Amino acid sequence: MPTAWRFFLAITIEAIWELIENTNTVIQHYRAATAALGYQGDTVMNSLGDILCCGIGFIVARQFGWRRALIIFFLTEAVLLIWIRDSLLLEIIMLVSPINAIRVWQMGH
After folding, report:
1. Rounded to an integer, what distance in angstroms lies between the CA atom of residue 86 and that of residue 76?
2. Of 76, 84, 86, 89, whose Cβ has the fewest other Cβ atoms within 10 Å?
3. Average pLDDT of the residues in 9-38
4. In the prediction, which pLDDT does 37 show?
5. What is the Cα–Cα distance from 41 to 18, expressed in whole angstroms?
């Protein structure tokens, strides 16, 4: 598949996720499963920023190659876990199969 179509597909999937992420069902599940007790959903600017970051990430991964991009991804995840006790992988885990010990750790208890 040409790069332009892969880019379009990545942006489209991200935009669809942003719509799903901000439904009442997902917001309620997010509140119940994660440390984000008062989460109200993303602002429009946050969602647009996420879509922009998806595009930038696609370009970076394309330029660096999948191995270096994966290393950067995991390093970023590690920094976020240490710095703010949150990351993409952790959020996915907590949304799919919440673990109370992680939630307690995220809340700093």
Report:
1. 11
2. 84
3. 88
4. 72
5. 10
Dist. CA 50–CA 40, nearest whole Å: 16
Which two three-digit tokens encode residue 43? 């602002």
State both tokens at 39.
């989460």
pLDDT tens, residue by residue, 96-105 = 898 989 988 9
As given in the structure block, the two tokens for residue 58 are 């696609």
Q: Are 42 and 15 in contact (CB under 8 A)?
A: no
State the Cα–Cα distance between residues 96 and 57, nearest whole angstrom: 24
pLDDT tens-digit map of 30-83 = 888 777 777 888 899 999 999 999 999 999 999 999 999 999 999 999 999 999
Q: Which of 77, 60, 79, 78 is nearest to 68 (CA)?
A: 60
Query: Cα separation of 101 and 70, whole Å?
Result: 27
Distance of alpha carbon 3 from alpha carbon 79, whole angstroms: 30
Q: Which of 90, 83, 89 is nearest to 70 (CA)?
A: 89
